[in-house]
Amino acid sequence: MEISTSTLTPFVLGNSIADAIQVRVRSVEPNLLNISYVAQGAFAELKIPAPSPARRADRLWEHTCFEAFIRSDGDPSYYEFNFSPSGEWAAYSFCGYRDGGPIDDQGLAPDIVVRRSVDCIELDAVVRLDRLPAIRTGALLRIGLSAVIEANDGVFSYWALKHPTAKPDFHHTDSFAMELPFPSQSA
Q1: What does pTM read for this prediction?
Q2: Considering the domain 2-181 in this protein, what is its CATH number?
């Protein structure tokens, strides 16, 4: 089992009601990634989407949401997943930098579990890599992890493993800062 744990950093320090966001990525079964986000902070001030049926939805990044970007090392093609605390999700396929669009494939539906408390929100999502044709079996995965946090007053903060440009850009190649071997039988 491969496990990688990282801390997301805010784009602008001091511009968030979240205190910290930790992310753990685990490959516990062949072709599956378990991604767990733990955000801590003043969540009475956070605008969290209300629970809804698990379904595909667009524009989730316009509110509090957690994101994962996945590609094979050396390949410009990549995938974006959005996981909302509502239980909604979205998946996008790109053949290059921001060159792509939504994938309407219910087979990609991640298993999402959300737990909330007064000062913490946890979101676990399972991504099925075998449904992503551009991800090569056995490849080294490059993963970008991020979060968009919306406050009740409409102020946003943007969190990521790495902020390589002068504005938040989770699609930038250098944002794919985590490396993890493809989960296989030998993992």
Answers
A1: 0.94
A2: 2.60.40.1190
